[in-house]
Every structure is written in structure tokens, then in C-alpha cells.
Specification:
This protein is mostly beta strands. It has one domain: TolB, C-terminal domain (Neuraminidase), CATH 2.120.10.30. 8% of the residues lie in helices and 41% in strands. It has 2 helices and 26 strands. The strands form 7 sheets. A 4-stranded antiparallel sheet has the order 1-26-25-24, with helices on one face. Strands 2-3-4-5 form a 4-stranded antiparallel sheet, with no helix packed on it. A 4-stranded antiparallel sheet has the order 6-7-8-9, with no helix packed on it. The N terminus is likely disordered. Bound molecules: 2-acetamido-2-deoxy-beta-D-glucopyranose (3 copies). One of its GO terms (molecular function) is zinc ion binding. Keywords: Glycoprotein, Repeat, Signal. One of its GO terms (biological process) is proteasome-mediated ubiquitin-dependent protein catabolic process. This is NHL repeat-containing protein 3.
């Protein structure tokens, strides 16, 4: 079964060659950007690594999310299902290491936050059982070290903090935490917490205007201090200043067919990788280096097979490889950047 999907997705990937395209719109910065790479658009920027992982039989559920700890070379995957391990740990080379399922109910998003002193993995849990409606921090072996929210109880409270279907989180280098809550529940919030869990700022309203949300589904932070949110129900990406929470802009024009499910940067910070779930598609979008974000400009497309359903993805900060959690295909696949296209990623 897994092999079947690998082949289908592989075929889809070569199709990507045909649909790879550039758009020459946007600010002068973007135009220059598009021009610089336009002569290369016949190249495929990524190839599917069909040998990853070495043991795909560990995928026994619906794989909802994946997180890369590139410092330690680890890949964490969370899957849903009955009587199965919920969290799988692989190496970036594809070897299976371990799994756990205690204290995990229904995982949605996952994030690996590693320093030289500590390896940790955070999971957002949308279950309604006794571990649900929470965001949990584990060490690399699955020991639970922190719980945010009220376990088993959904809510809108801020003190104490409560969640309803928390979608994803991002932890930056300083330990500050950015949470999107959530995936179609009571809340439509972007929350910034300090590393000791004090609220620093919040955008908490449902709506279509600036800084309002409809299913904020994925969040990431770039190296110039901007917070990027996949506002899926509003079919846009919104961007905020990470220190003040100030709204910096929104991209609508790339997502008219379907809203973004996942948002992550390439290691050089030049591109945003976006997943579109029902279209089974990944977009490579040019990101302006600083400040307001202008218009959205799609540089390339990776079309996966129909019904693969890419939900959330992560990018290795070391190699630039994209790992995609595919709910429909029930697996995580790895796409490796072509070095001629991304010379700055290293090997
Ligand atoms: C974005 O696109 C709109 C409509 O095409 C255009 O009016 C606007 O000037 C563009 N903005 C930037 C920053 O390029
Ligand atoms: C936990 O995973 C093991 C296999 O690793 C499985 O036998 C067990 O049923 C799972 N438990 C639950 C509650 O899912
Ligand atoms: C994908 O399709 C399903 C089933 O039609 C729908 O419920 C869901 O809202 C869609 N998701 C997105 C992101 O459009």
C-alpha cells in the first residue's frame, strides 16, 4: 500500500516539472527575485526520496504531522488511530528509533525544539479524552514534561489558558512560544507566550479583517522576526511582528483555490513552502527578506497524487529536505532539494 502511494506521488512529482512556473508580479524586490531564477525554471527543485523511511510499515495510522529536529537529525511523526503507537521517531536517514502512545489522544500539530542542552518535542492534542485540548511538551523519549491548557476540557479561557482544537505551535530560539488555536473549535487565536508561559500578546477574534482568523492552522517564525500564520478558512497567510504582534500584511492572491494548511521556510529564508490539503499540492513561494510582505508570488509547484492530502509539513534546517505528513496516503514522504537550485542549503 505504501509503495503504491510512493509510486503515485513519484509520478505526480515528475508532473511538477510541467507545472513549474513563475509569476512576474509583486514588488520590485519580488520581481528581481523572480527574474534571477526564471532561467532555471526547467529544473525540478526537489526530488522524492523513495528510500525514506527505510521501514514504512511503522505508518499504521493517519499521519497528521511531522517535526524535524535538525540539530539531532531526528524526525518526529504523530499519527491517529486505535491501538497504535501515536508518536514515531525516525532519523533523518530513515532509521526507526522508537515510539510512544501514552498521554497522546488525538495529535494534530507537532514541533521539535532542540538546544545543545535539551531535546524536546511539542504536540497539540485535539482529542476530547482525558489528555485532549492541550499542548504538551515531551522529551525525546516521550516523557511528559509540560502540559498547557486544561486536560480533557475545551474552553476559551486565558487565565488559566484553555484551548479548543489547538492546531499547531512554534517555539523560537529564545524559547518564546507561538500557538494557533485552532482547527475549527471555539477559538480563532494567535497567542505568544514567554518561555515561562506568560502571555505576551494575542490576536483572538474570528473574522476576515486584518489580524482576525478563520481556522488558523499553522504558524512559523522567520529569521527577521516575523510570524507567519496559515489562516486556512480565510484562504490567506497573515504576517505579524514577533515582538509587538503588529499586523504586517496578508497574502491572498496565491490561495484563491484553497487555503494554506501548512507554512514553513526553507533554511535560506528565501522561500515559503505551503501545503494545500485537498488539492494535494505544495507551493514554493518567494518570501521578501524584511518588512511588509507585498503580494504573493508562486515560484514552483509540487503536485502530489490525488487524495494524498498533505496536512502539515516541516523542513530540515540543515539539509532543506521537506517532510510532508500525508493524511490520505497515510505516510510521511521526504523531498530533497536539488543542490543546483539551492546551493546555499549545503549538502
Ligand atoms: C499587489 O497586486 C495588486 C493587484 O494586482 C496591485 O494593485 C498592488 O499594487 C500589488 N502590490 C504590490 C506591493 O506589488
Ligand atoms: C500503544 O501502542 C502499542 C504498540 O506500540 C499498542 O499495542 C497499544 O494498543 C497502544 N495503546 C493504545 C491505547 O493505543
Ligand atoms: C477538504 O475537503 C473536505 C471534504 O470535502 C472538507 O471538509 C474540508 O473543509 C476541505 N479542507 C480544506 C482545507 O479546504
Amino acid at each position: 500500500m505504501a509503495r503504491f502511494w510512493v509510486c503515485l506521488a513519484g509520478a505526480g512529482f515528475f508532473l511538477a516539472l510541467l507545472v513549474l512556473h513563475s509569476r512576474f508580479c509583486g514588488s520590485p524586490v519580488l520581481r528581481k527575485f523572480a527574474f534571477q531564477i526564471s532561467w532555471r525554471t526547467k529544473e525540478i527543485p526537489y526530488r522524492l526520496d523513495v528510500g525514506w523511511p527505510k521501514h514504512s510499515e511503522y505508518f499504521t495510522g493517519a499521519t497528521f504531522c511531522v517535526a524535524i529536529d535538525s540539530l539531532s537529525g531526528l524526525v518526529y511523526i504523530a499519527q491517529r488511530g486505535d491501538n497504535i503507537p501515536k508518536v514515531l521517531v525516525f532519523t533523518e536517514d530513515g532509521y526507526f528509533l522508537r515510539s510512544w502512545n501514552y498521554t497522546v489522544d488525538t495529535p494534530h500539530g507537532i514541533f521539535a525544539a532542540s538546544t545543545l542542552h535539551e531535546q524536546s518535542v511539542w504536540i497539540t492534542d485535539v482529542g476530547s479524552g482525558s489528555y485532549g485540548h492541550t499542548i504538551k511538551k515531551y522529551n525525546s523519549f516521550g516523557d511528559l514534561v509540560q502540559v498547557l491548557g486544561t486536560p480533557g476540557k475545551k474552553g476559551t479561557g486565558l487565565n488559566p489558558l484553555q484551548f479548543d482544537n489547538p492546531a499547531e505551535l512554534y517555539v523560537d530560539d529564545t524559547g518564546d512560544i507561538y500557538i494557533v488555536d485552532g482547527d475549527g473549535g471555539l477559538n480563532n487565536r494567535l497567542i505568544k507566550l514567554s518561555q515561562d508561559f506568560m502571555m505576551l500578546w494575542l490576536h483572538g477574534e474570528r473574522g476576515t479583517g486584518p489580524a482576525k482568523f478563520n481556522i488558523p492552522h499553522s504558524v512559523t517564525v522567520d529569521s527577521s522576526g516575523r510570524v507567519w500564520v496559515a489562516d486556512r478558512g480565510n484562504k490567506r497567510i497573515q504576517v505579524f511582528d514577533k515582538d509587538t504582534g503588529e499586523w504586517l500584511g496578508a497574502w491572498n492572491n496565491c490561495f484563491t483555490e484553497e487555503g494554506p494548511s501548512s507554512v514553513r521556510f526553507t533554511p535560506d529564508g528565501k522561500y515559503v513552502i505551503v501545503a494545500q490539503l485537498n488539492l494535494s499540492r505544495l507551493l514554493l513561494v518567494a518570501a521578501p527578506p524584511v518588512g511588509s510582505i507585498g503580494n504573493c508570488s508562486v515560484i514552483g509547484t509540487i503536485q502530489l497524487a490525488d487524495q494524498v492530502l498533505p496536512h502539515l509539513l516541516d523542513v530540515s534546517g540543515k539539509t532543506g529536505a521537506i517532510y510532508v505528513a500525508e493524511i490520505g496516503a497515510k505516510q510521511v514522504q521526504k523531498y530533497v532539494p536539488m543542490n543546483s537550485y539551492f546551493p546555499s542549503f549545503g549538502s
